[in-house]
Amino acid sequence: MLSAVGTGSILFTPRVGSVYQYDLFWILVLVVFFMWVMIKEMARFSVVTGKTMLDGMSKLPGPKNWAVWIIFIPQLFAAAVGIAGLSAIVGSAFSGFFQGVPSYFAIGTIVISILITTIGNYMQIENISKVLGAILMGIVIFSAYVVFPDFNTILAGLKPSVPKEVDLYVILPWIGTILAGSMGIVWFSYWISTRGFGGGFENQLKDDEIPSEVAKMSTHKVDKKKDLDEWIKIVDTTALVGVVGGFIIITSFLILGSELLAPKGILPSGSDVAIDLSKLFSNVWGESGKFIILVAIIIALGGSVLANQDGWGRSFADMSYILGRNSFFRSQFFASFTNFTKLFGVNLNKAKHLKKFYILTITGVIPIIIITLFKDPVAIMSASGIIAAMHTPFIVLTALLVNIKLLPKEYRPSLFYILMMTFSGIFYLGFALLYIF
Predict the structure, then answer these.
(1) Are the CB atoms for 51 and 204 separated by under 8 Å?
(2) What is the dihedral of CA 137, 139, 143, 145, to 10 degrees?
(3) Smallest Cα–Cα separation from 110: which of 286, 297, 309, 271?
(4) Continuous H helices in 62-167
(5) Are the CB atoms for 193 and 201 separated by under 8 Å?
(6) Within the chain, how many helices (H) and strands (E) appear?
(7) pLDDT digit string (tens) for 404-421?
(8) Are the C-beta atoms of 172 and 389 separated by less than 8 Å?
């Protein structure tokens, strides 16, 4: 729940509130419901089988690893752009405190995060994110309470309607980042297995394969159907707590954007986006409100940089293991590249080294280049959000196919969840096609 407090909450929700007030509140409620269905169904496969959803996708009929490839390639771009955007907004917030170029602070954020994610471990990162997110939650909820409008004003937004002027550049990145992006949905299956839910992750690897990071995690053997049924119920509840908590946070930001930014015609954008966002709290906390929101941006999005670097690094390492069965990863070129990296003490045949390699390159060096070339954090994050919105329907519908095709009959999703997963995939697909059109 806490790690879901990211750009969808802090950046894009106030922008939507500033332009449309509560007119799109019904979309938020709908997406939160779909998100609950999606993440719990994504976790179903891991609870029952003890394997990642990505591993399940690799076993689908058709060309070898076709589903994993379709996820892997776009997410390399999404990861680089996403980390660049998050860090750029953090850099903008730092520049509100200190005199300096925002991009320099953004680069510094990336470098510090790399050191933490490559030296530390996941539990430490999660604990840091918990503390930072909890501070932000308290500040935002109280601020929204202070400026809370008439309750009927918000309820009116539950009626589905289409605004007269639709700006998809404002709406689509918001939809793509509410609670979790496309890969955030996948990461939930990693999280519940790391926690020992259900079967945990089992070591299914051969000696000549690239070891998966998750193979070293807890192995919790569960054989009885009754136990697995109970674990599935726990996952359902865990997912529900997560999305309800996230919904409260996002609604709070929507209220702040609608009540404080919309009347002044402020649309947070450009390299000074953090300064624009600081006006969210100025009417509530006075002059100190500026510093409160800047600190909130730094701690919340700084925590998101850590969590996303760790999540993408872990996922890319796992996908590389899966694709390692493919001829390219067994080619002479890849072998030569691996030998070259060993000169620097990096062995890409080891999971922890492979994860660090992706963190350093895809979520490190490349985002720094992007920040250097493109100065607008909103434009960078909008690109990442749009990718997430366009990629989500494929991930969701493919995960549904995995659960139907590969799980034992008694653990397959019911007709209700099959329909809801299908509707959620179509929902995201509709927005993606609309934006392309």
Answers:
(1) yes
(2) 50
(3) 309
(4) 66-97, 102-119, 122-146, 151-155
(5) yes
(6) 18, 0
(7) 998 888 888 999 999 999
(8) yes
Instruction: Tell me the residue length of the chain.
Output: 437
Distance CA 202, CA 129 (A): 27
Q: What is the pLDDT of residue 279?
A: 64
Q: Would you call 219 helix, strand, or coil by DSSP? A: strand
pTM of the predicted structure, to 2 decimals: 0.79
- State both tokens at 266: 């402020």
pLDDT single digits (tens) 290-308: 677 777 777 777 777 887 8
What is the arithmetic mean of pLDDT over 235-253? 88
Give the pair of three-digit tokens for residue 128.
Answer: 């840091």
Higher pLDDT residue, 218 or 54?
Answer: 54
As a whole number of angstroms, the distance between CA 281 and CA 260 comes to 8
Q: What tens digit of pLDDT does each residue of 155-212 get?
A: 888 888 888 888 877 888 788 778 877 787 888 887 777 777 776 554 333 333 333 4
Alpha-carbon span 17 to 255, nearest angstrom: 7
Backbone phi and psi for residue 221, each to the nearest 5 degrees, phi listed first:
-75, 125
Beta carbons of 178 and 32 less than 8 angstroms apart? yes
* Beta-bridge partner residues of 219: 200
3-state secondary structure 294-323: HHHHHHHHHHHHHHHHHHHHHHHHHHHHHH
CB neighbour class for 39 (10 Å; exposed up to 12, middle 13-18, buried from 19): buried
* Cα(275)–Cα(272) distance, integer angstroms: 5
The winner for highest mean pLDDT among 225-229, 281-285, 289-293, 334-338 is: 225-229
- With a CB cutoff of 8 Å and minimum separation 6, the contacts of 381 are 7, 11, 12, 81, 82, 85, 86, 88, 89, 173, 177
Buried b (16+ CB within 10 A) or exposed e, 178-192: bbbbbbbbbbbbbbb
Q: Scan for tokens 């404002």, then name that residue.
A: 170
Q: Are the C-beta atoms of 381 and 89 separated by less than 8 Å? A: yes
Three-class SS state of 253: helix
Tell me the pLDDT tens digit for each residue of 355-386: 888 999 999 999 999 888 876 766 776 677 67
At residue 226, the pLDDT reads 77
What Å distances lie between residue 90 and 85, 115, 232, CA to CA?
9, 17, 37
Contact assessment for residue 4 and residue 247, using Cβ atoms and an 8 Å cutoff: no
CA pair distance 249, 12, nearest whole angstrom:
13
Fold of 7-436: Hydantoin permease (1.10.4160)
How far apart CA 108 and CA 98 sit, in angstroms, is: 14
